[in-house]
Amino acid sequence: MILYLDSNQGEAGTDALIADAEAGITLNDVNSKMYIVNQQGMNVKTIGLYNSWNSTKDELGELKESVDVNNINVKVSDETSELCTISVKLKFEKRVCTFEFVINTDYTLESGAINPSYTTGEKMGKAGMNTLIGMGTVFVVLIFISFIISLFKYISVYENRKKEQKEDTASVGVDNAIAQIVSNEEENVEDDLELIAVITAAIAASEGTSTDGLVVRSIRKVNNRRK
């Protein structure tokens, strides 16, 4: 990996280079990077193009033909900031490659591209691989979504269980209330019977009447209203 360092970037980059040099260690051994500082005609885009070449040259192999001037095309640009576009096609051991360079009006590199030519089989292979990767990704996402959907039934089971618990609690409360009302009514009936018995005994005593064979019964009002 090649990095471009400009003096305008400050002293940090220069200080690091000086420290590595004084230590007697090559930059490649330190951080697997090479540095170019203030070289004539060099800029960040130039170094980027060179890094692209380093990553592509293994796919091309050795150069089989020398550069033919007739294969170099120069097209003057209509853009005010660009001078021209230079393209050249070269034949390498493994494939043909086209290089394109866009030059600015100050004769520096604006952009560059390295475009190897791939066979139809290679293009189809890459397309097939991309298709498989895309389909695999889709299937993984669908499986994940299906798994999430399958968990919804547990949510409904939990909600139903909570609802049943609330209904059971309410039913128990109603039953307790009814039982308490019935119990209160029975207690009231017994209290009334005792009161009636006491009053009856008192009346009988005052009149000199015997209470033998006296039976006290409760009388409940029955609604016989016709509809």
UniProtKB/TrEMBL annotation:
<keyword id="KW-1133">Transmembrane helix</keyword>
<keyword id="KW-1003">Cell membrane</keyword>
<dbReference type="GO" id="GO:0015081">
    <property type="term" value="F:sodium ion transmembrane transporter activity"/>
</dbReference>
<protein>
    <submittedName>
        <fullName>Sodium pump decarboxylase subunit gamma</fullName>
    </submittedName>
</protein>
<dbReference type="GO" id="GO:0036376">
    <property type="term" value="P:sodium ion export across plasma membrane"/>
</dbReference>
<dbReference type="GO" id="GO:0005886">
    <property type="term" value="C:plasma membrane"/>
</dbReference>
<keyword id="KW-0472">Membrane</keyword>
<feature type="transmembrane region" description="Helical">
    <location>
        <begin position="132"/>
        <end position="155"/>
    </location>
</feature>
<keyword id="KW-0812">Transmembrane</keyword>
<dbReference type="Pfam" id="PF04277">
    <property type="entry name" value="OAD_gamma"/>
</dbReference>
<dbReference type="InterPro" id="IPR005899">
    <property type="entry name" value="Na_pump_deCOase"/>
</dbReference>
